[in-house]
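Support reply, case 0932

Customer input (verbatim):
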Amino acid sequence: MSSLLTESDLSHEEEVVWLENPSGLDYVRQALDKTRRRNTKPPYARDGRMVGYALLDDNASPDPDSGLYKRRVFFLLPHDRDSLPDGLYREGAPGEAVDPRTIAPKKPGAKTPRSQSGSVAIATSAS
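Our regenerated output:
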């Protein structure tokens, strides 16, 4: 899924767990993944690395067809700005990218000038 998550997609989130300090990241990608458990570290099968994930509350129910829970996962790919500052996303960001400073349980992350343009561009425009 994209960054266009709604609060109803996240209604059972209880906590966001960060595996890395998000303060040094201009953006993270977010997606809803289907997992077997609601309150443990989910498996990660993408390139790159998982930088955070959501834990669900006790009222979360698995999908009746699959038996899996939908949980938000935050990740970065090898070609993202944090790893390649002069690469593809030197300016701009992937569609599912949001500023990690805007992420909270039950709240979709938001796009900000920092997530979309980068901290270098923000620092340059502020001077």
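We compared this against your earlier run and they match. Two observations from our side: DSSP finds two helices and five strands in the chain. The first strand starts at residue 13 and ends at 18. Please reopen the case if you see a mismatch on your end.
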